[in-house]
């Protein structure tokens, strides 16, 4: 896909806010026909601009969910160790997000668990029984102030 034009940026902004919008609703906001919006969405999906569309579940309907931010330092930062840890994390349901980072730690994870007991079982399984982890540090999320996945498209794509 070539450069994102203004209409595509508007479509993406609307989709980031509510992926359940119909092509008709988007078209009304963007000033295009519904068929033009559908064509652009198909193209952006095919080009990988839109990776996937998801539903965000409200944690309170699950009876509450505890979130934990976990910084992980690996024993070795060799390519095979990093790859093995990435594979391990990718296959673990409790890990909601994982970032390979710079600084004193190698990875930062966002982990969802039913409660602190479930997190303890998770951390024992992932970090204590694992030969990759030198140390880890956990912070309990008291309250989510801002939680989402929307990128600030207008700012990121603005000319400098």
Which terms would index this structure?
160 residues; alpha+beta; 4-stranded antiparallel β-sheet; 6 helices; 4 strands; 39% helix
Structure description:
With 160 residues, this protein is of the alpha+beta class. Helices cover 39% and strands 19% of the residues. It has a four-stranded antiparallel sheet with strand order 2-3-1-4, with helices on one face. Helix 1 packs across helix 2 (23-30). The longest helix is centred in the N-terminal third of the chain and has 13 residues, at 34-46. It is elongated and about 55 Å long.
Q: What is the strand and helix layout of this fold?
A:
Blueprint: H1 6-17, H2 23-30, H3 34-46, E1 66-74, H4 79-90, E2 95-100, E3 107-113, H5 116-128, E4 133-140, H6 153-157
Antiparallel strand pairs: 1-3, 1-4, 2-3
